[in-house]
Write a structure and sequence with these properties.
8-stranded antiparallel beta barrel; mainly beta; 172 residues
Length: 172
């Protein structure tokens, strides 16, 4: 092999090695829990899960929203109690005693700190509810959900109309 051909081959090989990322071992943790590992070694969590302190997808988003809450709102005179419970779908929660009226749970979708109530008729009585809100924490470290929603009576004979409400759910 001529010296020129050898140098050309060596140069070509060197350029190829420089262009291919170095394989320094697996950047991913042993597991991402409920997620997948990205090329940069970070975990990408499945819907309904968040990172734990180690960057692994083990924390259920539902856990931030569940518990007993005292509700103050502009649509009722007295504060009342609701319970927010887990749902089989990890991206949702159920709200018991919503509006201090509904007998069945109102189902809400959660993502990060957002809660969304898609239009639904919880009690099959022509009363429909929908709304959106956000989760935060107060100075005491308690969860607080600020929610705007509407309840619409769609009874064709005796409708009471639509109520637009703003509510604050404070964790007990």
């Amino acid at each position: 092999m001529s010296k020129k051909l050898f140098l050309f081959s060596a140069l070509l090989f060197g350029m190829m090695v420089a262009l291919v990322p170095a394989c320094t071992g697996d950047k991913c943790p042993d597991t991402c829990g409920n997620g997948v590992c990205l090329e940069d070694g970070a975990c990408d969590c499945d819907p309904g899960y968040e990172y734990d302190a180690d960057g692994i997808c083990t924390v259920l988003t539902q856990d931030k929203f569940t518990g007993f809450f005292t509700v103050s709102e502009n649509c009722s005179n007295n504060p009342y109690l609701v319970e927010i419970v887990v749902n089989a779908d990890v991206t949702k929660v159920g709200i018991k005693n919503f509006w201090d009226v509904f007998q069945n749970q109102v189902i809400a979708t959660i993502s990060g700190t957002t809660i969304t109530i898609a239009r639904q008729e919880p009690d099959n009585d022509k009363f429909f509810v929908e709304g959106t809100g956000t989760l935060s924490t107060n100075a005491s470290g308690k969860a607080v959900i600020s929610l705007s929603y509407t309840v619409k009576d769609e009874d064709p004979v005796m409708s009471t109309g639509t109520k637009s409400c703003t509510a604050t759910f404070t964790e007990n």
